[in-house]
Amino acid sequence: MARPEVLTEADIAGAGRYVMKKLPEVTLAFWVMKIAATTLGETAGDLFSQTLQLGYFLTTIALFLMFIATLVIQLASKRYNPFFYWAVILSTSMAGTTMSDFMNREASAEYLPKGEKSLGWGPQGLGLGYPAGATILISILVVIFVIWKFTGLTFEIRDIDTFRGESLFWAAILVSNTLGTSMGDFLSDSSGLGYGGGALLITGLLAALLALKYAPAVPNALLFWLAFVLTRPFGATAGDLLTKPAAKGGLNLGTAGSSAVLLAVLFALMGWAHLKERDSRPQPA
User: Fold this and answer.
1) In the predicted model, is pLDDT for residue 254 greater than 70?
2) Is residue 229 within 8 Å of 144, Cβ to Cβ?
3) Dihedral angle over CA of 80, 86, 89, 90, nearest 10
4) Cβ(258)–Cβ(243) under 8 Å?
5) What's the whole-model pTM score?
6) What is the mean pLDDT of the chain?
7) Which contacts (CB < 8 Å, 24+ apart) does range 154-162 have?
8) Which of 114, 52, 110 lies closest to 256, judged by CA?
């Protein structure tokens, strides 16, 4: 007679963590998908607010509601689903784009319909400017992390397995993507570096973070959040490089065409991640 399988407390705890696991492993593929999603967030956000002339205010409201809808689905899911997870990342990227634009800019005359004085319904933008906007966003992000710290929950993405921890994670993601958009737009528009120069600077900073990964004194959680913020301006500058006119240093591919290509790439990557996740699940005995 076969001896019954004995499960230790560690086995049971490990199984529980697997069932509750809602977030992906942070690998090279994760960062490739993150950059694709954030670049698409930039081009799609500009598509709605500028090309379709809905304006920053209306687009921000619509995309924030989309973020809430995708977040509800993600939080209700019982396990990690790449389509749910990356849908939230994409919605935070798109909402972050227009939230940043609404905070920092006012509607530019180049996007106004002929004879019109406003872009969409509602305020045309708060016009705070990049320094003030970034200061506000950094302050909000710090408050989120302070609250997170006082909860005693982990900052390690692979170990987040509670509703409260995941809620804090997504709050930080939304603000991080909005802050990253402000940084990217500042580098592209105001720093004098241009789209290509801004992308090269961010690439250098990301390479420095990669090198610090091998320094034992630097926490991996800190490196993750710094990289998460910095990949957003990388996506923003890459999106601007694809869509802006050649006279401004862009490739003039347009927001619609660029968004369609990036969406196809992201869906292909999500499909690959879904197949990989399915194959990695423990099979019933």
Assistant:
1) yes
2) no
3) -160
4) yes
5) 0.80
6) 80
7) 154/221, 155/219, 155/221, 155/225, 156/220, 156/221, 157/23, 157/24, 157/26, 157/221, 157/224, 158/21, 158/23, 158/25, 158/26, 159/17, 160/22, 160/23, 161/17, 161/20, 161/21, 161/22, 162/20
8) 52
The one-letter code for the residue type at 104 is N
**φ, ψ of residue 22 in degrees (nearest 5):** -120, -10
pLDDT of residue 65: 96
Per-residue CA distances from 281 to 57, 81, 268, 269 (Å):
43, 12, 21, 19
What is the Cα–Cα distance from 239 to 41, expressed in whole angstroms? 8
Best-predicted range by mean pLDDT (96-100, 106-110, 221-225):
96-100
107 — pLDDT class (breaks 50, 70, 90): low
Q: What is the pLDDT of residue 157?
A: 80
Q: What is the DSSP letter of 197?
A: H
Q: Which of 30, 49, 24, 55 is nearest to 239 (CA)?
A: 49
Residue identified by tokens 């973070």 is: 209
User: pLDDT of 36-63, one tens digit each?
Assistant: 888 888 888 888 888 888 888 899 999 9
User: 115-126 burial, b if ≥16 CB within 10 A, otherwise e?
Assistant: eeeebbebebbb
> Kindly report the CA angle at 29 between 134 and 88, in degrees rounded to 5?
50
Q: In the chain, what are the helix, strand and coil shares in percent, each to the nearest 5? A: 75, 0, 25
